[in-house]
Amino acid sequence: MKSVYKFGLPIGHCQLPIHRTPWVAFCLLLITSCSVNKATNDDSLKKYFDENKVDGCFTMFNNADGKVTVYNMKYDTMRFSPASTFKIFNSLVGLQTGVITDEKMQIKWDGIKRWNSDWNRDMDMTEAFKVSCVPYYQEVARRIGKDTMQQWIDSLGYGNRNISGPIDSFWLDNTLKISPDEQLGLVKRLYFDQLPFRKSVQQMVRDVMMQENNTAYQLSYKTGWGYAEDGNAIGWVTGWIEENKHVYFFVTFVKAPDKDTKIDAARMNITRSILKQFGFFEGKK
User: Fold this and answer.
1) What three-state secondary structure class fits 225?
2) How far is residue 56 from each of residues 73, 89, 236, measured CA to CA in Å?
């Protein structure tokens, strides 16, 4: 079954060459004609969510042919807290404004011991991104400030654009919300230098998103974990995988009422299982 599908962020979506070239600018001029794609619903992916005892959705965009594959379309356009996937945006704004001088800029630990022992030390942006250090990025947001943050949120049309309340928690407390299809639009634009940030800034963020790099494939993503307003635990994996110079963008979203559900494990188990089903990790795509 196919249905009309459009990426949620304002610049929309269009198929681009695999390499970042002047064709990017040309394609942006053709945005109206290439913003709509046909999405194929793939219910065979349901088993991976069932195995991990979660609900949710998965979306993938194949840049080579413009095909979109979706499991559970009802969640794909629903908005939820971005949780730690907001570190992608926070990093971009921090670097663009100079609040973060570069990916090696260190912020001192405030001495408060938190539940994640990996956070209880001085660290730079690269380390903070890898261990998803909330205190580091809360300090970055405080230094950016509400007015500047709101300007960038509005400029990109990020989710519901709501950052009311404390500047250091709006992406964690269900004030700011974003949908899986909007997440997909964001990482695609990041990959192709389409965001309104310096190219060097976008490259630094792409570099810290790289999680696996070998001769068969390169896998880049950011995870997120938190709670929805209804008390359900939620989890994200948003990013892309490259094989043989072809890029595929994906978003996994999971949701579970049982607080004992290991969301962190479930989101990655599902993502890797789906990518494996689609033939990734062997360098043959």
Assistant:
1) strand
2) 9, 23, 10
Output the six-digit token pair for 2.
């196919």
Please name the amino acid found at residue 40.
T
Tens of each residue's pLDDT in the chain, 285 residues: 444 455 554 433 334 433 443 333 333 333 222 334 578 999 999 999 999 999 999 999 999 999 999 999 999 999 999 999 999 999 999 999 999 999 999 999 999 999 999 999 999 999 999 999 999 999 999 999 999 999 999 999 999 999 999 999 999 999 999 999 999 999 999 999 999 999 999 999 999 999 999 999 999 999 999 999 999 999 999 999 999 999 999 999 999 987 667 899 999 999 999 999 999 999 888
> Which amino acid would we find at residue 164?
S
pTM of the full structure? 0.89
- In angstroms, the CA 242 to CA 220 distance is 9
Reduced to 3 states, what is the DSSP secondary structure of residue 26? Answer: helix
- Which listed residue (81, 84, 132, 220) is catalytic? 84
The pair of three-digit structure tokens given for residue 28, joined into one six-digit string: 């942006």
Is 164 an annotated catalytic residue?
Answer: no
- Rounded-to-integer distance, Cα 74 and Cα 12, Å: 20
Q: Is 152 helix (H, G, I), strand (E, B) or coil?
A: helix
Q: Output the six-digit token pair for 188.
A: 């695609």
What is the residue extent of each domain of the chain? Answer: 2-277
**CA dist., res. 96 & res. 222, Å (int):** 19
Token code pair at residue 87: 């570190």
CATH class of 2-277: alpha beta
140 sits in which H/E element: helix 134-144
